[in-house]
Design brief:
Two copies of one chain form a homodimer. The first copy, chain A, is built from six helices and six strands. The model of chain A has no long low-confidence stretch (mean pLDDT 85). Chain A has a three-stranded antiparallel beta sheet. Chain A is α+β, with helices and mostly antiparallel strands and 162 residues long. The structure holds a DNA duplex (25 and 25 nucleotides).
Chain lengths: 162, 162
DNA sequence: TTAGGTGCAAAGGGTTTGCAAGCCT
DNA sequence: AGGCTTGCAAACCCTTTGCACCTAA
């Protein structure tokens, strides 16, 4: 039904190992998930509704959690909403969040990670995972439009850190 | 009623400037807040219930948000719960979170912050604030007790990153 | 055939809001 | 006195759960 991928194999293996099943819904959700950097459950629900309008939101939640268990996804909370990151494609990364629009830029920086390890070991811990979010004001052009998204942000209020 | 502090002055000024009022509830909550590094709304509600059992949870939420606006507090989300950090006392800091118990260690690291600025400016942003959480496994002693909290953690499951 | 999975709707937990009564200034 | 605040309860939002009906293996 879906074209075979390395990620599908990972999922199949995970399921087989514990007697779980590969369903049509899981295949559809995985395929959609692999096409993006990150999604919230509701976004995913909306996206796959075009493939099959009968898949329930609960199934989306259950499947995205499942993908986290396989290591293909990673859950991140922004405020009170959760996002699921596609780790399979890009590896671990951090987030630079625009405080004026909804844009989220992903990045990675080895030097920062190294310093994190240092802090942790100084405190008697080994890092298992981490989360770094930078909340930034975009540089605006003279006319008040955002250099990044092009919108006029003169009067916008800031998005607060979460 | 409460002993005067620099923080109380900051709050008074903020309120006066926009025609808001200093109430008994706000004084009680601020005084309690200044004694701790961070609190959740429910913890705060419980703590001040000893001073006045009639203060509602909604008032606690409203007041903690107010403290964020004054710059005395900063809201941080851990999973689906929010914590309010006492910025007034310690300045900005990051969190090292034990994945085995509920312990949260606060730290700050200038080198990491400098690298963050670098990442942001490379992407056309100036950092307004940030959030860094390290999720770590504590070093266990030979008998399986945690070097940090002293509890036996042999069989515990991990706390997941949020 | 038989776990395990699904959809739906209801329950949950944390946070916010509407409103009448209460309190600062 | 007038408007900001409060407490209470209901509303909200996102997420999880219970359950009878499906479905992969």
């Amino acid at each position: 039904m879906t074209k075979p991928t390395r990620e599908l194999d990972i999922l199949k293996l995970y399921l087989a190992k514990r007697g779980l099943k590969l369903t049509r819904q899981r295949e559809i959700i995985l395929a959609a998930f692999l096409k993006m950097e990150h999604v919230s459950a509701e976004e995913m629900h909306w996206i796959i509704s075009r493939k099959d309008p009968h898949i329930g939101l609960a199934t989306v939640y259950r499947t995205l959690k499942l993908l986290c268990q396989t290591g293909l996804a990673q859950e991140q909370h922004f405020g009170n909403k959760a996002q699921f990151d596609n780790v399979a494609h890009k590896g671990h990364h951090d987030h630079l969040i625009c405080t004026r629009c909804e844009k989220i830029i992903e990045f990675e920086n080895c030097q920062i990670e190294a310093l994190q390890e240092e802090v942790a070991s100084r405190n008697g811990f080994t890092i298992h995972t981490h989360k770094l979010e930078l909340y930034g004001d975009p540089v605006l052009l003279p006319d008040g439009t955002c250099k990044n998204c092009g919108r006029d942000l003169t009067d916008n209020t800031r998005r607060t850190p979460q």
